[in-house]
Write a structure and sequence with these properties.
By secondary structure, the chain is mostly helical. Helix content is 60%, strand content 5%. It is elongated and about 70 Å long.
Length: 115
């Protein structure tokens, strides 16, 4: 996943309405009208949120007879999760090393240590 795609995906998910839409789409595909039902906003406003998710590659719309259901692209969510996990693992390793030093300061070769 390139930096632009990653930035668009995280920017799209920064909005709570779009995060809620993604959460609801984990249950299955839905039409825009179905997705808009619980919100106190116009169908057009919900469509704009979906367009942002679509341009970020998180959802797709396909034609199904008269319907155009919105589909969550789980593969893109997986790529975001891998990116987060990679950085979480590195941060946890750093914190683990710090924790080891704090619990056993004699394990380091610090110049401030007394002989």
């Amino acid at each position: 996943m390139d930096d632009d795609t990653l930035s668009r995906a995280f920017a799209a998910l920064a909005d709570p309405t779009r995060r809620d839409l993604v959460s609801r789409l984990t249950l299955g595909d839905a039409a825009v009208g179905e997705l808009a039902a619980p919100y106190d906003m116009s169908l057009q406003a919900v469509s704009k949120h979906i367009a942002v998710l679509e341009s970020a590659g998180l959802v797709t719309r396909r034609r199904d007879a008269q319907r155009r259901p919105v589909h969550l692209d789980a593969e893109v969510l997986g790529e975001l999760t891998q990116w987060i996990d990679r950085h979480r693992t590195a941060a946890e390793a750093r914190l683990s090393r710090l924790d080891a030093v704090l619990h056993d300061p004699s394990s380091t070769d610090s110049p401030e240590r007394a002989p």
